[in-house]
From TrEMBL:
Species for this entry: Nonomuraea pusilla
Protein name: DNA-binding transcriptional regulator, GntR family
Record carries keyword tRNA processing: no
Domain HTH gntR-type as annotated: residue spans: 1-66
InterPro entries xrefs: GntR_C, TF_FadR/GntR_C, Tscrpt_reg_HTH_GntR, WH-like_DNA-bd_sf, WH_DNA-bd_sf
Lineage of the species this protein comes from: Bacteria, Bacillati, Actinomycetota, Actinomycetes, Streptosporangiales
Length: 211
């Protein structure tokens, strides 16, 4: 549907910083940028408002960044949800409910993330990192958690665009990914939850001075 296409394209432009926090966007400007009619763009902007990425202002919308306290809260909720999805994924692995091919795909994304990080391909590493965490959530089978995390990830990404820099501790990040992957693969739910929670909170601690 045109509405969905417009929403996804505008979302991508916000997430990649084309429209950074504080940028004002009118319905007419967005329609021209997307080369679409105003009706699907209008619906897309309403959806993005509901997602918390923009807020209405005058005749258009403004891209929203979370304030420090709200960003802290977002990370805490993300940590709790990622602990849940990691734990559930490990439980499903223990019960034989994850197909070998699906688990292998998680390993492949992890390897690609580590390689991109090690080689300094930062933009690629950021995208792959999110794909790794999303894949864990998918393997949990909890679609409510996945949808909530998608929204949180978007809000966090927009809110930290200005402070993004190559990770200062790439080895530490990769090690935590390896630990999480091992806990899921070896069906250790409690360890998976603990590692996932610590990883998210470590990420916030590493960026909190700049956010």
């Amino acid at each position: 549907m045109q509405n969905d296409v417009a929403r996804e394209r505008l979302r991508e432009l916000i997430l990649d910083g084309t429209y950074p926090p504080g940028a004002r966007l009118t319905e007419l400007e967005a329609a021209a940028a997307l080369e679409m009619s105003r009706t699907p763009v209008r619906e897309a902007l309403r959806a993005l408002t509901a997602d918390g990425l923009v807020r209405p202002t005058g005749r258009g919308v403004v891209v929203v960044a979370l304030e420090r306290d709200d960003l802290d809260d977002a990370y805490r909720v993300r940590a709790a949800l990622e602990a849940l999805t990691a734990e559930t994924a490990a439980e499903r692995q223990r019960d034989g409910r994850i197909a070998p091919a699906d688990l292998r795909s998680l390993h492949e994304v992890n390897e690609a993330t580590a390689e991109a990080t090690a080689r300094g391909r930062f933009a690629e590493a950021v995208a792959l990192n999110r794909r790794f965490h999303r894949r864990v959530a998918e393997l949990s089978g909890n679609m409510i958690a996945l949808r909530t995390l998608d929204r949180l990830w978007d809000q966090i990404q927009v809110s930290t665009l200005r402070s993004l820099a190559p990770p200062s501790r790439p080895g530490h990040v990769s090690a935590q990914h390896e630990q999480l992957l091992a806990a899921i693969t070896e069906a250790r739910p409690e360890d998976a939850a603990r590692i996932a929670r610590a990883h998210v909170l470590d990420t916030r601690a590493a960026t909190s001075g700049e956010a």
